[in-house]
Amino acid sequence: MFRAVISEAxxxxxxxxAASNLLDEICFxxxxxxxxxxxxxxxxxxxxxxxxxxxxxxxYEADVHDIGVDLEAFKKIMNRAKAKDKxxxxxxxxxxxxxxxxxxxxxxxxxxxxxxxxSSNLQVPDIEYPNExxxxxxxxxxxxxxxxxxxxHVTLKVEDGKFIVYxxxxxxxxxxxxxxxxxxxxxxxxxxxxxxxxxxxxxxxMTKAASSSDILKIYLGTDMPVKIxxxxxxxxxxxxxxPRIES
Amino acid sequence: KNKQVKLSDFFR
Lengths: 247, 12
Fold this sequence. Notes:
The complex is a heterodimer of chains A (247) and B (12).
Chain A (H helix, E strand, L loop, with lengths): L1 E5 L2 H14 L2 E7 L2 E7 L5 E8 L5 E4 L2 E6 H8 L7 E7 L4 E7 L3 E7 L17 E6 H12 L4 E7 L2 E7 L4 E6 L6 E6 L3 E6 H8 L7 E6 L5 E7 L2 E7 L2 E3 L1
Antiparallel strand pairs in A: 1-5, 1-7, 2-3, 2-6, 3-4, 4-18, 7-8, 8-9, 10-14, 10-16, 11-12, 11-15, 12-13, 16-17, 17-18
Helix pairs in contact in A: 1-2, 1-4, 3-4
Chain B lengths: L1 E3 L8
Family (chain A): Belongs to the PCNA family.
InterPro entries (chain A): DNA_clamp_sf (IPR046938), Pr_cel_nuc_antig (IPR000730), Pr_cel_nuc_antig_C (IPR022649), Pr_cel_nuc_antig_CS (IPR022659), Pr_cel_nuc_antig_N (IPR022648)
Subunit structure (chain A): Homotrimer. The subunits circularize to form a toroid; DNA passes through its center. Replication factor C (RFC) is required to load the toroid on the DNA.
């Protein structure tokens, strides 16, 4: 049995959007504690981890199930949510469907086909990072947009206590500098200077579900995967992205 | 020139 009620369908939509930007399909592992999912994108460059504790739901009841869904189909259904809709997710074990129900001015039901997506048993690897930056999503996404003007990859740097988003193209360059006392920065826990370069489109996709005032936790080392964490609608989203390395 | 590496390169 699995049944979960979410008070704001629109908020849950962000979680599905975040996953569907990077993944084609996902396996939600549900149990009495909540929902979790871990998956790598098809090119094995990015990892997505979603944790939604049962407390994030208005009502929640589940025993152990693996619920595999096509994210494109799920996303299209979630796009139909209205602003004040409640969302009910329930597993129909007989028909092998996930019922996605919007409750608002009317009750609208979708039955989403289940796929045999095996649960990945992936863990977010426990990497030790020298630097941890808490930054408002809005200014960080703006820095990525600036970088996007000059190249398709971007360098994230910690240099002399500053967090720098830097891009260099054949002709042009862009740079955003966040000092520790900047109003964009919540906190910086700096261990050492560091520098890693990343594909910009992945970074954009990973930060798309965040509202501009949401707080991103960015973990950064040198030529290491970047880890970006934030919360949406009581769900914890964690992304890992492999760097581009000089060859 | 930099090259995209995979996550698995870090988790061996």
